[in-house]
Write a structure and sequence with these properties.
Order of helices and strands: HEHEHHEEHEEHHHHHHHHHH
Distance between the termini: 38 Å
Helix content: 55-70%
Number of strands: 6
Largest sheet: 4 strands, mixed
Number of helices: 15
């Protein structure tokens, strides 16, 4: 137990240390800077302004508080269309000077250039300061585009909302079904039926999530697409259906065990007072085992929130703000699984994925604590 606790502590420390390093990363791509003509009155640009400029959504410096002139975007590789290799010198020694000339000659320019060839020491060239990625940029941002240039966007809000939307809908679907099956197994089914169904349901929990993903992709996606007349079937609703199926074994098993722990004397007392079997179930058994049922639901939520592969395969993986259940979304676990292998180690993208892991860790920890508190709650002895 001590070794396990130390290992978990080290994992948590490493996770948060790596993730929080994102807020020490510059908002402009590492190793690059933005340069403008020194006559340009704009001295500062935030991440959204930079995105709007390079997406051509903002085309005039006046919209950013500058002079009335159209913005000219200049990228590093364009210098090779202006000057020949001979003019740039051997080993590109004259490259900073030539870049400076281009910036000086164009008062309306904004140049995205590597710092290695920066013309920052040349009179007439001004470098725009690059602020670090802020907490508000990360938690309040509505766009997740970690590979965007010159400023990657790490807005985690669509990922959090997508995760909660899929998970909560899954529990809304799974909770009544799971509770119904638990009531049947505990109170209505015969001993032979129960001995067959209980292990079968528990066996569902051992099926790999990728198998559920294939089932959803082949079976549920076409059904959802055809039933609701959608252009694609990979939606949040499809992911919720898969997660509901995956959460059912947990809910059924824990809730059924809680119901069977209701003392026989309480059942007999209820029946002796003239209550029907059904009245005994919903007025005695369910209230007595309410803490166990609540713990089952909370554990089901934890199972749904932490799921990766099945959700990755059926939700469409669109990192956009969700507006309905019938749109493609992306969850936090799916984002980590899809992008971690391609993120450069130690970079801002890499650190942002670790920070997503920190968010997921905190959510699951809160859910686990709630489940533990609920499961330890003592039933009402006066019932």
């Amino acid at each position: 137990g001590a070794i396990t606790s130390i290992a978990i502590l080290l994992i948590v420390v490493f996770l948060f240390k790596e993730g929080l390093g994102l807020f020490n990363s510059p908002s402009v791509e590492n190793g690059y800077s933005l340069y403008v003509n020194s006559k340009n009155t704009v001295d500062d640009l935030n991440i959204k302004d930079i995105k709007h400029i390079f997406d051509s959504e903002v085309t005039n410096w006046k919209e950013l508080g500058g002079n009335e002139q159209e913005i000219m975007i200049f990228r590093f590789d364009e210098i090779f269309n202006i000057y020949s290799e001979e003019e740039l010198g051997e080993d590109y020694t004259l490259l900073p000077e030539k870049l400076g000339e281009v910036i000086i000659q164009n008062p309306n320019i904004i140049a995205f250039l590597p710092q290695k060839y920066a013309p920052s020491d040349i009179q007439g060239v001004k470098v725009l300061p690059s602020k670090n990625i802020s907490v508000s940029d990360f938690f309040g941002g509505k766009e997740w585009i970690p590979t965007a240039t010159p400023s990657p966007l790490f807005g985690v809000l669509p990922l959090i909302l997508g995760t909660l939307l899929v998970s909560i809908t899954a529990i809304i679907i799974a909770m009544p079904l799971g509770l119904g099956v638990a009531i049947y197994l505990s109170e209505l089914a015969g001993e032979r039926t129960r001995k067959f169904m209980k292990p079968t349901i528990e066996l569902l929990a051992g099926i790999p999530s990728v198998v559920y993903g294939f089932f959803g992709l082949v079976v549920l996606v076409p059904i959802v697409q055809k039933t609701f007349g959608l252009s694609v079937g990979e939606t949040a609703f499809t992911g919720s259906l898969i997660l509901a199926i995956m959460a059912l074994p947990t809910i059924v098993t824990v809730a059924e065990d809680a119901m069977r722990n209701t003392p026989l004397a309480m059942r007999e007392a209820s029946l002796a007072l003239g209550a029907t079997h059904w009245q005994t179930i919903y007025r005695v058994v369910i209230p007595y085992s309410a803490s166990g049922i609540s713990a089952a639901v909370v554990l089901g939520i934890g199972r749904a929130i932490g799921e990766t592969m099945a959700v990755l395969m059926v939700t469409g993986n669109a990192a956009v703000m969700p507006h309905s259940l019938f749109e493609s979304v992306r969850t936090i676990p799916a984002t980590i699984a899809a992008e971690l292998g391609e993120a450069p180690a130690g970079g801002a993208h890499y650190q942002s994925l670790f920070l997503l892991g920190c968010i997921l860790f905190i959510i699951t920890m809160i859910i686990s604590i709630i489940a533990e508190v609920i499961s330890k709650r003592q039933p009402n002895k006066e019932m």
